[in-house]
Amino acid sequence: MTADLTSTVTFDFVSVLSQAAAAYRGHKGTRPSAEILVNALLQAEKSAKQQRLTYPFESLLGKWQLCFATGTKKVRERGGIVLGKGLYVPKFIKIHISFNATLEQDSARGEIGNQVEFGPVLLKLTGPVQYLGKKNLLAFDFNQMLINLFGRIVYNRPIRSGKVQTEDFYNQSIAKLPFFGFFLVTEDFIAARGRGGGLAFWIREI
Fold first, then answer.
1. How many domains does the chain have?
2. Residue 147 lies in a domain
3. Which of 68, 69, 67, 70 is nearest to 25 (CA)?
């Protein structure tokens, strides 16, 4: 079923995530602890699977600020990977992800931008994406790097083979590419699990 951005999710975890987003922006309220936020994200993921929610690529378009993320760690005894505790991104570091649609007829293709801003330094990576709506999987690759220092572009070049890399990208199997599996998408925030198993929570850039 196609997801309704508000009515198909339960109140508990949405209220926790909404509180986290508002507090991170500096509005009223306190930020939920990392443990509570991780639990809310896991509840959201479970709910999406149970309801078989799907989100259109258009609902991801725009610019989003990374608010919270978890790492992963391998557990030898169990032979698997478990989530790290997770942490809020420090306010002095701004990490944004953006998605734009291409002008082509294929609505499942577009461009991703991932930028980190720390003081006068801005590093931005861009590249193509392809979206599998039935699985809410967004595969991506980066093929261009830009470095801006004190408002001036000091580096802006292709990574690897540039345009050829983009053309080859759409012929690659999703299993061979980095990807995000989105399990919650609203007007105000989005959440996904990365290929490595970690969780990420972004809020819309205002």
1. 1
2. yes
3. 67
Residue span of the structural domain in which 133 resides: 11-204
pLDDT score, position 3: 55
Q: Give me the helix-helix angle, 11-24 and 34-51, nearest 10°.
A: 130
Pairing of the two strands 121-132 and 109-118: antiparallel
Nearest-CA neighbor of 181 among 166, 168, 200, 202? 200
**Which band of pLDDT confidence, cut at 50, 70 and 90, is reported for residue 28?**
confident
Q: Give the integer Cα–Cα distance in Å for 134 and 119.
A: 40
The pTM (predicted TM-score) of the whole model is: 0.88
Q: Would you say residue 187 lies in a domain?
A: yes
Of 4, 10, 67, 68, nearest to 198 (Cα)? Answer: 68
Is residue 3 assigned to a domain? no
| Any domain includes 4 | no
Amino acid at 60: L
Give the CATH number, domain containing residue 91.
Answer: 2.40.128.280
Nearest to 186 by CA among 7, 29, 47: 7
